[in-house]
Amino acid sequence: MFVSGGKLPEAEVKITVLHKPFLCHRKSKYGDILLVHHEGYLQNGTKFHSSYSQGDKQPVWFTLGIKEVIKGWDKGLQGMCAGEKRRLVVPPALAYGKEGKGKIPPESTLTFNIEVMEIRNGPRSHESFQEMDLNDDWKLSKDEVKEYLRKEFQRHGYPPNDTHHEQMVEDIFKKEDENEDGFISSREFTYKHDEL
Ligand SMILES: [Ca+2]
Ligand SMILES: [Ca+2]
């Protein structure tokens, strides 16, 4: 089966910083919303995607750390400055795994060149808590979080997508609502465990 005979790659992202801006006001962290341009390559060098030249040629927004993107991005795009460029080499376990996806064959190690254009407060930032807590009771309901996501997406020019938002809300509560009372308290929100 394993014709290559090579040893299996470890599930780690290899990060190379290609460009670091001189000024860096803040660094990307879990829960931020990032605007990125990205190019993806297969191991044989074939480019399978480029946001610079394909589709509407626009960079894309996503939330860091909530599995909205492949795990390799969630791991590899932490601590970045706006304007920074990185190359990520992502093993299949942190990308599309055994199944592959579209143009990406199964068990592919992928290389991405990623440029962070902008970083904004996502649903998990301290600054966002009060903005999200619409009834000022110092805890966040699922509806409040969902409303916040809806507004953030609209602000960035995306149509609201209830199914997507509900999934994001479920992911957020699974991680944040430690005592499972259906609310994220300010304490649960503030004392977040920064894995990685
Ligand atoms: Ca509330
Ligand atoms: Ca709770």
Shape, principal axes of CA atoms: globular
Task: Estimate the mean pLDDT confidence.
Answer: 87
Contiguous runs where pLDDT drops below 50 for at least 5 residues: none
Number of contiguous helices: 5
Question: Over the alpha carbons, how many angstroms does the gyration radius reach?
Answer: 18 Å
Question: So what's the oligomer here?
Answer: single chain
Q: End-to-end distance, in Å? A: 34 Å
Q: Ions, cofactors, ligands: which are bound?
A: calcium ion
Task: Please provide the count of β strands.
Answer: 8
| Residues in β-strands, percent | 15-25%
Helix and strand run: EEEEHEEHEHHEH
Give an overview in words.
Strands 1, 2, 3, 4, 5 and 6 form a 6-stranded antiparallel sheet that branches. A two-stranded antiparallel sheet has the order 7-8. Helix content is 24%, strand content 22%. It starts with 13 loop residues before the first strand and ends in a 6-residue tail after the last helix. A hairpin with a 5-residue loop joins strand 2 (33-41) and strand 3. The chain is α+β, with helices and mostly antiparallel strands and 196 residues long. It has 5 helices and 8 strands; from the N terminus they run E-E-E-E-H-E-E-H-E-H-H-E-H. Bound molecules: calcium ion (CA) (2 copies). One calcium ion (CA) binds next to strand 7.
Which secondary structure elements does this structure contain, and how are they paired or packed?
Elements: E1 14-19, E2 33-41, E3 47-50, E4 60-63, H1 71-76, E5 85-90, E6 110-120, H2 126-132, E7 139-140, H3 142-155, H4 162-176, E8 184-185, H5 186-190
Helix pairs in contact: 3-4
Residues 177, 179, 181, 183-185, 188 line the site of one calcium ion.
Catalytic activity: [protein]-peptidylproline (omega=180) = [protein]-peptidylproline (omega=0)
Domain PPIase FKBP-type: 31-120
Keywords: Calcium, Disulfide bond, Endoplasmic reticulum, Glycoprotein, Isomerase, Metal-binding, Repeat, Rotamase, Signal
